[in-house]
Design brief:
The protein has a domain at 20-87: Roll (SH3 type barrels). It has two helices and seven strands. The strands form two sheets. The protein has a five-stranded antiparallel β-sheet with strand order 6-5-4-1-7, with helices on one face. It has a two-stranded antiparallel ribbon with strand order 2-3. The N and C termini lie far apart (205 Å). The longest helix has 132 residues, at 91-222. By secondary structure, the protein is an alpha+beta fold.
Length: 223
């Protein structure tokens, strides 16, 4: 049983220390009142060292019954009735903080409005750029389609040119062949005419010789 009690006692001490640590770590303030005497001890019969005005921040050192030992910002220590302490800030300080918070929020709101205006401007520019990009995209698409069509026409034209060139080469070859044949025909015609002329000449000479011989025979018979 003793070890168990010892453990419980130690746990209680640790818990109390933790609670006390949190309690004393909190900043306390004097509640609004006309004046709060800071005494040297716990009781109204102790000498007053100072008078604390309401809202004065103090550090809580310890609590004993209805009294609390506190330390002022100047370092002076003393005892006051615990009922005059509060962990809430004075109303005037709360109002000041709220006013400061309001001012900060107003500044933040102005900054937010300015930021929103800038975002709207950037969004407007972005929309304009988007429209311009879409128009440019449509133009590029049309140019690409026209280029594809022109390319197809060029390819078709090239094929036609190749076919025409092939046909031209064939016609040129045929023309060359015809020219050679025509030249051969001309040569043959000249030869034929030449032979025909020679034949006529020989025939004429032959006729002349025969006629001459017959004439001589007649003449001889007449003699």
């Amino acid at each position: 049983m003793k070890p168990l009690l010892s453990c419980l006692y130690c746990s209680a001490i640790i818990l109390l220390c933790l609670i006390s640590s949190d309690l004393f770590a909190t900043e306390w303030h004097v509640k609004p009142t006309s004046e709060v005497p800071l005494r040297r001890g716990q009781g109204t019969d102790y000498k007053i060292d100072a008078v604390i005005s309401d809202g004065t921040p103090v550090s809580l050192l310890q609590v004993d019954g209805d009294w609390a030992q506190v330390q002022l910002g100047s370092g002076r220590e003393g005892w006051i009735l615990k009922r005059y302490l509060s962990d809430e800030k004075p109303l005037k300080d709360q109002v000041s903080e709220l006013e400061q918070t309001k001012a900060d929020l107003e500044v933040e709101l102005i900054q937010t409005d300015n930021h929103l205006t800038e975002l709207m401007r950037v969004n407007s520019e972005t929309e304009q750029n988007l429209v311009a990009c879409m128009d440019e995209n449509n133009t590029v698409k049309s140019d690409y389609q026209r280029l594809q069509k022109d390319t197809a026409n060029v390819v078709q034209t090239k094929k036609k040119l190749v076919t025409a060139e092939t046909q031209l080469n064939e016609l040129s070859n045929r023309l060359s062949t015809l020219e050679l044949e025509n030249k051969g025909l001309k040569n043959n015609t000249s030869l034929i005419w030449f032979l025909a002329g020679s034949g006529v000449l020989l025939l004429g000479l032959l006729i002349g010789v025969l006629v001459g011989k017959r004439s001589k025979k007649r003449y001889s018979s007449l003699l």
